[in-house]
Amino acid sequence: MARGSKPNTTGTAAPPAAEKPAEPPNGACGEGCTHDHAHSHEHSHAPSAAPAAGGERWLTSQQYKGIGKYLKPWGKPPTGTTFWIQIITTAAVIVISILKGVESTVAIVVSTGPAATVHAEQNPMVLASGICFGLFSLVLGAGYLLARRSAAAPPEVEAEEVVAAPKAKDGAPKEAKAKRREARSEEAQERQAIKSARLEAQLAEELKARDTDLAHRRQEVWAQAEAEGLSAADTQKRMWLVEQDHQERVALKERIHRVHEAAAKEGLSQEETHMRVNETIHMHEESRKMRQGQAKELRDLEQEAVKDGCLPAEVRRRVHSRKQAHAVELAAFETHREVITTVVQQCKAQNLKDEAIKQAVTQAKAKLTEDVHMKHRAWMMQEKKARALAAAALKESARYPPEVRNIMLSRVRIDGLKARPELNGRFGTVATYKAAADNKPGRLAVTVDGESAPVLLKMEALTVVGFDDQPLPLSEMTDEDGPPPLM
Predict the structure, then answer these.
(1) Quick one: angle between helices 81-102 and 61-71, nearest 10?
(2) Full-model pTM
(3) Region 187-210: what's the mean pLDDT?
């Protein structure tokens, strides 16, 4: 296309002969040629972007006006999109001004290409769109880089919030679970408290009813004894049986109440609770039978001691000593089941196998048996020494009066002394008898608790007491069959 010709705005291709001039020979491009002639002229010559003085510029006034037409805002307040369009327009004008300022010093080669694309490249709308696209790309790229930089290195507060946010999200379900767990625990505690209160009220009512029944049975015993003309000893014996039966029933009821409380705390089912109650009743009945056997053994021991001619104090001592041994055996029997149950629970908590549990139970039983045997051997040694002393006292008391024989080796309380009132109310044991001359009453040598030497006292100042320092009962009665079985 000839210099200075107007662009083809119709969009039709111009004749090739008119658009492409003849190629001059190598090195003869003319005065305004700025090409590098070191290479072969295989390209087409385009108009120079830096024309000679007085020539046309690379951006015509018509093109510049077209760019301004498309970039000019539409006169509305700079809000929203309008603001950014004005910013981009200003930037576009600045860029165009810079290009126009340096076009005289920088040689820009613009290749027009084929004739069919010349008019599109010179169209002002295309150039304006390109500038806008470039500026938009620049703004978006800068924003993207800033966003990436902020995400890579956030402030400390934002970083803490970012870290705390997932924790808060994860903690929310945990807090909800904890609240639900606390609510369930409170409900369980309330149910347990209600159940315990109900059991307490039920136990109180049953005890009250049993007390009423005991009073009624006592009245019946007294009426029956009067009707039959029984002695005071026989009447007291029957009353003792009634009271023993009452105590047995009360003790069993208290044990059942404790079983219910323990089952409620452990959250056992009704069936498991019922099994434990039945086991408790069975153990209580076995314990009752064991006490019956011990009572029969005590009666046999007492009869044997009397038959052997032992002193009355020695008979009471043997019975008391055997009672202590029976108490140890009974305690071992009653705690046997509890110890075994505890061992089994501990083994199950450690997830041990059945063989290990059986071995642990066997070891626990062996330990309980060994403890009972050790205590029994110690009791036998003490009993042997006590019987040796009693035999010597019996031999010595053969020449004593009968009233002295009845009080020898007895536990006594001192009362009514005028010469030594500080001994009144104290306890001791009668050791020997000192006979007096001239038909005067003799004195008893009493080993007073806390005194180093025996004290000679008259028989009138002494009162026989039991081994618990309490007055002896009128009679120590036992029943051959023991208390009646619980119904």
Answers:
(1) 160
(2) 0.46
(3) 73
